[in-house]
Amino acid sequence: MSDAVEVNFDGLIGPSHNYGGLSDGNLASARNAGDVSNPREAAVQGLEKMRTLVRAGLVQGVLPPLARPSFDLLAAAGYSGTDAQMIEAAARTSPRLLKAAYSASSMWTANAATVSPSADTGDGRLHFTPANLSTMLHRSLEHPDTTATLISIFPGEDRFAVHGALPAHADFADEGAANHVRLCAEHGEAGVELFVYGRDTGESATGFPARQTRLASESIARSHELDGARAVFARQSRRAIEAGAFHNDVVCVGALDTLFFHECAFEDTAGTLAALRRAAEGRFDLKPVMVPESEVPLADAISSYLFNSQLLQFPDEDRLVLIAPGETQDTASTRAYCERLVRANGPIGRVQFVDVRQSMRNGGGPACLRLRVVMTEDELASCHQGVILDEELIDDLQACVRSTYRDRLAPADLADPKFADECRIAREALLEILELDALL
Fold this sequence. Notes:
alpha/beta, three-stranded mixed sheet, L-arginine/glycine Amidinotransferase, Chain A
């Protein structure tokens, strides 16, 4: 299947993007809680990042925002009456719950699902398992609508398998592709899938939560029919979690045969690399690029989101390109490391910085905003074409955002019932552009 390409499906940031501070363990989310956000600027920034990849000749897709606020959540909490009455009552008695109902966190599509390409699966289909995101209330709302979105975009059980989310229990806590890396020689060849977890079944820990369990990762590997010899399960270091690496993609990213990671990413670095080499034997030679803490302190790696970057193969470039947030350039240690990285003549040949500051202030960098899906030519032709971007479609989406999104949103503004109508109108307009009428 040498005709396969990696398609990045970015989340289109929704009109309710706000700094609610709902995510325990996400330092940026906590630091900026209560600040005024700019949903319009956030969505435009995200679309400009997508445009960067389109202009580079890569295939780029987009996933629409989910419907917010979630009136199902408010109803489950005992609120009733009209939509306006439910919002007004929740704002008075449970403002944090209202913030959860309005959360735009589906924008970070690295958490949407775990994806295994058809080259890796036993039945030769492209598999998706939507993440249950059960650790955080505001994120646990997403998977039913995410599942419906994926089914709309990847229809047909002959080529695509969209599984249900795992049980919403602590033992099955799953955060999707943010804790998953696929390594390979070429995108269309069988690869090695690395699953990173923070705790075992029944295990608890003080401090920041370990959001991914080993049981969840193993369950997904089984349902995707992966070759057990080509699936590796590694434990994320507790130190990284306590430092604010709430997902593995805050300290590690990989592409093709290259794994780029911080020295403190894994509990057992030597064991993880040895397991990956065994799994890759006969297919490709692993190229690990480990960033020493002496050069980039863990705190700098997390605050700059050096590793929450997209590692990509650009057409006509023989080395990988790292798409990093502007904060990586602004941080002295990571900027200096990137300069040394490029000069080292290793597998990463260039670093390109992008502005996603609105997302970064809520704890999500370039890698959080995308779900990587390796697709054959037939699979790509069979998916819903309305979400595959070109510059004209990006222009249309940005025009819609500029005409329907607010440029200022404080958490207190969520109490205005009229804002719910604005969110609905904006989302419906976007779905119309993307020809996703089934999601209306």
